[in-house]
User: Fold these one by one.
Assistant:
Number 1:
Amino acid sequence: MAAHMHKTRRAPAPTIKTLAEITGYSIATISKALRESPVVAPVTRDLIFKAAREVGYQANARGMALRTGKSFQAAVLMPVTAARDYEWDGVEYTQILSGVSQALDGTDYRMSVHVIRDAADGAEAARRIVDQGLADGLIFSGILADDPRIDLLVDHHFPFVSMGRCRKDLDYAHVDIDNEWAAHAATARLLAGGHRRIALVNPERRFSYAMDRLDGFARAFREAGIAASADLIVEGDLSTHFGRQSVIDLLQVAEPPTAFVCINESTTLGVLSGLGSLGRQVGVDVDVIAYDDINVSAYFTPPITTFYQPIEVLGRTLGQFLLKRMEGEDPKALRQVFRPTLIERQPDNLGGRLA
Amino acid sequence: MAAHMHKTRRAPAPTIKTLAEITGYSIATISKALRESPVVAPVTRDLIFKAAREVGYQANARGMALRTGKSFQAAVLMPVTAARDYEWDGVEYTQILSGVSQALDGTDYRMSVHVIRDAADGAEAARRIVDQGLADGLIFSGILADDPRIDLLVDHHFPFVSMGRCRKDLDYAHVDIDNEWAAHAATARLLAGGHRRIALVNPERRFSYAMDRLDGFARAFREAGIAASADLIVEGDLSTHFGRQSVIDLLQVAEPPTAFVCINESTTLGVLSGLGSLGRQVGVDVDVIAYDDINVSAYFTPPITTFYQPIEVLGRTLGQFLLKRMEGEDPKALRQVFRPTLIERQPDNLGGRLA
DNA sequence: AAGGAAAATAAAAACGTTTTTATTTTGACA
DNA sequence: TGTCAAAATAAAAACGTTTTTATTTTCCTT
């Protein structure tokens, strides 16, 4: 141990200049060699790579960023509602971020997260990201039927992938869940079980996927030749509170529903809570089919039938698509719609009394 | 409208050079003026600001970053376990990110999120962030009793704020929940209600807060002069599955517990599910007290008593502390331990039959 | 062996800042 | 009015890259 070991001065990180000095080549050659440009001789390339490995060279992201004008950031807009008592909100985002991060692993891109509080906030964030070059690509969800972010980004030729589709015919990369199909399947299942008065607990109508679900719901009735129980459609934020309140409201109408189609875990928990507090038993007095974000419906009492799609897979696809988009790939080639799998945990016909 | 309106060529974003040309000052003066340096005359400063506003000047983050060596990134390590069926995991992180983001709002800092899969991964991520200067500050949670990240960052004088305290006596900024207190309070409450056989559903012992909770649990028994039901302590990942399995295991012992102290929402749901499937009724056969991450226990059937702390507040504090740390403030001044509030929803004495 | 094209490398400029150093302008004082 | 310090501004260098342009080296052809 050296006698005077005052705060070990860390050696400055090696740069291409360091490598130039070590190898005797110019920084231009170093730069080209490191990026495997064909103009530098293979033998010198190898030499330079070796030197780089030896000194532990790491390209300085800031230098690259300035010169290339890129930020090496993949931005994700994460919605968080401001409502005080609505803290379940956005639980699935952990999975999305995890998936995106997986896709980005091993690339030069980092993931930056921009929290947005509503649609307007999201549009503003997107604009800031484009204008200031805060990121090289963007991922976002909560797509509106007519979403200003999609318009903006398409217009600016800015690489992005949306989770969800808007209702305009535009070319853009996206990943989605087949909500029309899922809502149809859930409704058809209940109709087949003998239910006629079916409630749909749905998101607000401005969301594109709310429309998709309405479509699926209507189609199931249409195909069964039965008039849809349109008066049992409720729309709201997807909070637990909303789910609970919906049940309380719906069970007071003249012909109350015998079944519920729920949109996510949070509302489902609210619906179950509401039913419980009114003394109704799931599987006996009413049936509930849900869409499951975080695979937790198995633990509800009783376990209920759900449609399930591992959200992390969507996240990973979002990330992969974004990488390709940032490399200039045609957005037309970057679209995928996932069909969730049905997990049956109940007969969904009031224990056989309906079918 | 111009006749030939081919793809509107966007004017390049104004730089300090643009401002220099407009105002006639040198770029040096522009730079100093914009950062309100006292060496530039107030009248010219105002002039330059006016020009900047007029052309919509926005400092180029990449240029700043290169010159200053800063990244203007505040990094957050977000843990996500790989386990396939454990998707509830990390639900509270949305709230943390939201809080951090709120604190960062209006500053030059952006939030980047690094997903980590375990403790080793986290240590590696921290090292990469320090070595490559990927961020100017770091926030992380899931603190181990002896956490290598804290050692590393303290050693490197790298600004960070941890959510949770390690069990070493070091000077570092942190935010925490008073887990010792909460576990003590929950246990004492159950003891006062007449319970003697109390189960503790706890995280793995390597986590610092697991130790804190063990301490609080033990202290409650000690203060009551009763031998702790140490054989009813279970430790595991905090999945719903673990909660459920714990109940199934614990109810098979010779003297089974009459009450459960749970650590988070996820395990609590599992515990309730397990109790339900064994036909035990909460509030009748057993009592459950939980710690509530996302304020959803009110919707469990029946609602249970919890300790609750809005996690977003912690997130905000983490962000605020990090900003101060990055400005060089003494970490000793940046510590805060929150006591969650008790939300009573049950008598917690088996409906009066114990007290 | 000279000439010239091709290959390899080097030099220089540029990206947008900040900071250090140098120069000019101002204003007080004798 | 000339001198000098202080105030204000300008010039230049630097951060670490990439890219364009220039130079040198290699090697083939005659």
Number 2:
Amino acid sequence: MAGIRAQKKEKTRQMIIQAALNQLSAEQSFANLSLREVAREAGIAPTSFYRHFKDMEELGLTLVDECGVTLRQLMRSARKKFDDDISVIKVSVETFMEFVENNPNIFRLLLRERSGTSKAFRDAIAREVQHFTIELADYLHETTGLDLPLAKLQSDALVKITFNNGAEYLDAPVENKQELINSTITQLRFIANGAASMINKPESKEPSPSGGMTENESS
Amino acid sequence: MAGIRAQKKEKTRQMIIQAALNQLSAEQSFANLSLREVAREAGIAPTSFYRHFKDMEELGLTLVDECGVTLRQLMRSARKKFDDDISVIKVSVETFMEFVENNPNIFRLLLRERSGTSKAFRDAIAREVQHFTIELADYLHETTGLDLPLAKLQSDALVKITFNNGAEYLDAPVENKQELINSTITQLRFIANGAASMINKPESKEPSPSGGMTENESS
DNA sequence: ATTTTCGGCTAACATGTGTTAGCTGACTGG
DNA sequence: CCAGTCAGCTAACACATGTTAGCCGAAAAT
């Protein structure tokens, strides 16, 4: 009744997952990871893989889900820190980059398969990101009073910038990382300020900006 | 001297390039495109491929370069339209989405290999994007008076948002495309307005904790 | 006219892949 | 204790891939 059987099974299942994660790197994406390679690294026969996943794709989706869990934890942790009354943007960015730093391979997985070959992958990742975006939009809506559609647009932009800079952060040399964090913060502040400035003049959505872009000089 | 030999060679070279482009789609990325497949579609023997490219990677880099050329044309065309005095942002976005629409496969190539497995690819694409970003930064610097580092940050954010929304545009159903364009324009305007609002208070560049979004004042 | 160059071809190889069939032996449930 | 389950294994298959070796014939060079 202890389930010594199921226990062992779960154990090697974790071995497989871990093996897959270990093999991910800058030079190897999940897409060109072979079932046999994973099985080899997990220390099982290739055919045993099928006892746990019907597909490499199924494995991949599992990884994405696990990643979703980790991201929730991340957000929770970020919110906790924010209770301490520091700038949301700063804390969010730092937390996110910390996540990237600690889970480079899983982040690379998201990054790559987001625009990958498998629709199931793309959808799963889009779902995760949307989760992220919507929660942020709600938060913005409540704290800034921006109407929900605009808040959604803002958080969407914030997430996109953060995600993209996370990708650069991943490969940046150590001495540039802090600078990259600062850049990201500034860019997010662009967006936050710009969105805030539209609260009082939402009609500026129409193409009549006052910005000093009068005429240009060809370069 | 007519070079009837070189002429034929160039012709099949183009056949190869065209074959590669034809095989790209939502379901097939350049990364998992095989030399033999390309050769087959190009109507040549697999081994003949080597007469033109040493590698699939070399082919890929060629495609990226070609894409760069197309993008330059795009920018030129956008600038021309802008002489007609419409909002830069609107025209830029529309032009970019037009490019995505007309060159879905080559855009997908950029999108995917940007975070792909080959460093050469990543670098080549980063170079192309930087080209794009720097020219835009210069333009912003000259027209808005924003100091160059900030202009760089702004254009970087603009490009990232545009690029990302281009990816969504690619797979969006027809009835959502115009909406996506409008969303993109609004998001870019967030950034433009936000950056403009920092011209007079550049000290907010520093991530000092006073600049939280909860307490930002309208300009 | 003769030789060289060279783009394209066929044949073949060594290798890695996903997947099926079927055995074994330890755990499980009665 | 005994029959059944089932995770893991070996062996094997059919297949696709990258790449080498070497021939052929037309264009180019001499």
Number 3:
Amino acid sequence: MTDDESEAIDAFERLGLTSYEAKVFIALHRLGSGAARDVASVTDVPRSQVYSVAESLEDRGLLEVQQSSPIRYRPVSIDEAEDTLRNRFERERERAFEFVDSVKEESTTEETQEDIWTVRSRDRVDDRVVDLLSQADEEIAFGTRLPKLVTSEIERTLEDRAAEGLTVTVISKNETVRDRLGALEGVTTAVPPTHRDDDQRSGRIVIADDDNILLSVVDDDGSETAIWSAGSLFASVLIQLIEASTATPESDAASR
Amino acid sequence: MTDDESEAIDAFERLGLTSYEAKVFIALHRLGSGAARDVASVTDVPRSQVYSVAESLEDRGLLEVQQSSPIRYRPVSIDEAEDTLRNRFERERERAFEFVDSVKEESTTEETQEDIWTVRSRDRVDDRVVDLLSQADEEIAFGTRLPKLVTSEIERTLEDRAAEGLTVTVISKNETVRDRLGALEGVTTAVPPTHRDDDQRSGRIVIADDDNILLSVVDDDGSETAIWSAGSLFASVLIQLIEASTATPESDAASR
DNA sequence: GGCGAGTTTGTAGGATCGTAACAACAGAAT
DNA sequence: ATTCTGTTGTTACGATCCTACAAACTCGCC
């Protein structure tokens, strides 16, 4: 069995099939169609198991059964199988979240949150960043040294918010970042005071209004961890801290 | 626990979560946020299990962890959770079918198929009907007495094919069906020769060109089973059989 | 009988479920 | 300071369920 095939089987398993089901389905697409013995001969699925496995695949709408002797099986087309699985997924998703939505706590408004939350992994930090940017009412500050931390979705959100009249400032030591985001209508860029040239760590800072903040660090191995707080006193304190620490003598002098 | 909640948990399980994961996720949306003990108090998940379950939910991107004592958990928004699950699904789907596509048997052309296949369940018969209609090159005959067997997708497909210049004929004893499909541009309707007024069985007939056919029957309990054959000699024989049997004395007389 | 097709039953392994014990810690009572 | 008490977080373990896998068994046919 090739690596590709193993990966495909794993993927099918994560889609809810058993490994036998995945193997039989793949085998039938290899063969076009076939009887139980044909399927068993090209897979490590015991022939006696093919019957029940095929039956469950029929229930899922992934193959069709020819009632004859011997029983022959025929997979549905790839497009049809994909549609069937997708429809099933969407149906389950809707049913699951419909209930969650009906019971979710409404009253816990963000402004009563006084906590700092942690988010691990790039993707979810991205999501959280977009979330914070979208929640801002007046002012946004976005900072990162790493161009790869500026996803197209973040870029689009920044552009949208600027278009809505918010004050959007991008701060970066990195020229690529400044050029890319500075090109957006209504976005102003700035270079941070370089009072720590030797700073190894990198990550991002998002400040939305005066009370929402996200800070992340990228680890040596490339993983990203962020802390964030929305509408909390804690956030305000952090923001003031950052603003104070970036108010270096140089920038003070420059501002006079 | 309400029925709705059980169903939602089942749905989450079919989406790949364990029942504990589903319960904790739902509970945290109820609570807004909370510690392990809070979650345990509103579910039947043991407190000692909440920690590991929450960890796996964090890995899935469905909740965030506040590192403090006690550890507090916060679910991501419903929209974000849905997006996360959908992205995961699409990723797996792509990986799975990419491989299937790469190994699928190309040479088995439909016209060498000599078999009759069976399809169970309304939905999949619908799919197969649309499939046959789409494959036709010249001529389509569609017949059913039951209006509910005419889905909007079938209606749309008939309209499209007629627009492409195919000869599309709809045969039905039922006036609703004739009116509805006859209203489509390029679709002609007909009443079948009623030589069997006492016929209890119902279902549908699809004939595409002279060699693709689908026949279905609706059972007493409302379930539908279809046999179909594409590009086979068998199909041609069946089609001739049907055409012969519908050529009643009356219609013969009328045609003279 | 010999053979292949299809059904049925049984077993081993793994993951989840559910319970319980445990150490670490904080606050209250002594 | 010491003890007591309640909570938190970790870990271990048996019960249960499902999948994977194997082996019997029935049936029809040559």
